[in-house]
# Entry
Amino acid sequence: MKYFIACAFLTTLCGLSLSIAKAEGLEACTNIKSPLRGSIFFTNAVENIETCQRSAEIISVLDRVLREVNGLQEVKGLGFFFARNSSEISYLDRKYFFGSLNLSYDSNGAVPLLREQQEIIWTHEIGHAILDKQLASDWDWYSQRSSIMEKWGEAVVQATDLEFLLDKEMDPKQRRQIQEKIESLGVVIAQKIEEYNSLPNLGQIETIMAPYLEAFADVVALVDTNNPRAMSFALANPLDPNGENSTPEEREIYEERDYSSIRDVATWDRAEAHAMLAPAISVWWNQHQNEIKPNRKKALLRGFYLIILGELRARAQDPALWSLTPQQANHRLIDAIVK
# Structure
């Protein structure tokens, strides 16, 4: 099962034109009053009572997570690009989500996930948004990155709105004006991509960041559910939850996200971002599992955030720490956790 987004899905993300069906932006699903929502677009679905109700259910879950778990900066005004059935979901640092109204285990939508699985995955994704917002406040390098990403995202959303207007507009003069605006936004997007690619030490720092971002998002799910197996459960095939008929590769994906037991750091060689810091997360859970109560959730997440922030800053500014092995990265993070 894959959870990612590529340029093929929304080509404006890469500075190209965007074709999107029935996009409505801020006018979509006016029944959703949450401050979390910005523009809402439907990429292979239409806006109707059913899709707006499901969108509201998803945003309601995220609102609850923010209310109960987030002790960091407020997260609001995010865009949502909703597909009907898909296994792809991602929070993009350009301040919006791309995800399915009904997440499935397979890319064809033939094996829908249980609602509880979907809620955990969306909880993981709002974890990315929480971290994105707070890092922009606390880390100068990330603040530069965030500013670029935000303007990039705003241009994408504006271009998407205009694409929808263009589909409805019949007057040739008005169509030309809309097309010119879309083209000018394409220039903005291209500029932001260039600025992003010009950030100092971009490749090294992005590579360093990825596993820490995933670790934080997983901890948000653990704190919210009070369950060390939450991510493992969410990623499993609902028709084969014990993996009896799964391939070794499929089982590995969700077994790596089971934090209920301590891992052997000395033999841990997983470099993939979602799995790399699993031993350290297991240690964090082992230390704090008895503290995860409603009145402690925000403080616990804030504490883990400060550990992540310290590691990111330290590693980003010291070239000697740019290329650590999974064992070395986990040892450093565990040392910070147990202090």
Observations:
- The chain has a mean pLDDT of 90.
